[in-house]
Structure to design on (221 residues):
């Protein structure tokens, strides 16, 4: 019963570097989401995937891309990291209530 | 999408005191969910409210959904140090939407 697994847990990038955040769920959920959390801003939706094969932009998609590789996996890619992307990133999946992963703490210097 | 205002933003209580956080919307909500996030942790689903005037209890936690479905509250009776964290309300972004809009949360500190 792993739920939602995110990797890595911590990452430091230099401005301009790229990276992919991985997310996998084992609950057979159709819907998956990527959120970022910044102090005082709550959780903001970056991208979501309502089902395998579909992805849509959320509130703050600029600078990010996503891939719904299969029903289990939903990855988030930063092509050219910027300091403004320093944040905590959460992946979640849902049928009704969301199950969140433990997060990735990303620092861009 | 739906916008909700959560108040207060911060609350410090003495252990054993009660605590309430409120979530207010300018539009009618189809439902609302509540989450708790411990310091350094991830949000954890607590409950979903769907019906007008609904009241649900989980041990010392009482959740209410307003009659007009425009507001909701979470009340904790006799707080304990284990209640520390940030409580978020989250309605769907729009009618029929599965995407949630999270409020900014109420950060609860409990003084032992």
């Amino acid at each position: 019963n792993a739920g939602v697994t995110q990797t890595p847990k911590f990452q430091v990038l230099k401005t301009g570097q790229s990276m992919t955040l991985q997310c996998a769920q084992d609950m057979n959920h159709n819907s998956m989401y990527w959120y970022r959390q910044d102090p005082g801003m709550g959780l903001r939706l970056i991208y979501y995937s309502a089902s395998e094969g579909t992805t849509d932009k959320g509130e703050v998609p600029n600078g990010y891309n996503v891939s719904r590789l299969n029903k289990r996996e939903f990855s988030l890619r930063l092509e050219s990291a910027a300091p403004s992307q320093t944040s905590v990133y959460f992946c979640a999946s849902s049928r009704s209530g969301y199950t969140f992963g433990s997060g990735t703490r990303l620092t861009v210097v | 999408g739906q916008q909700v205002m959560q108040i207060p933003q911060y609350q410090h209580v003495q252990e054993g005191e009660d605590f309430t956080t409120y979530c207010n919307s300018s539009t009618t909500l189809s439902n609302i969910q509540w989450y708790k996030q411990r310091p350094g942790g991830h949000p954890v689903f607590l409950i979903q409210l769907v019906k007008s005037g609904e009241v649900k209890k989980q041990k010392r936690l009482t959740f209410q959904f307003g009659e007009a479905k425009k507001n909701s509250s979470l009340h904790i009776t006799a707080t304990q140090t284990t209640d520390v964290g940030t409580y978020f309300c989250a309605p769907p972004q729009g009618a029929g939407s599965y995407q949630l809009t999270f409020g900014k949360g109420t950060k609860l500190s409990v003084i032992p």
In short: The two ends of chain B are 39 Å apart (CA to CA).
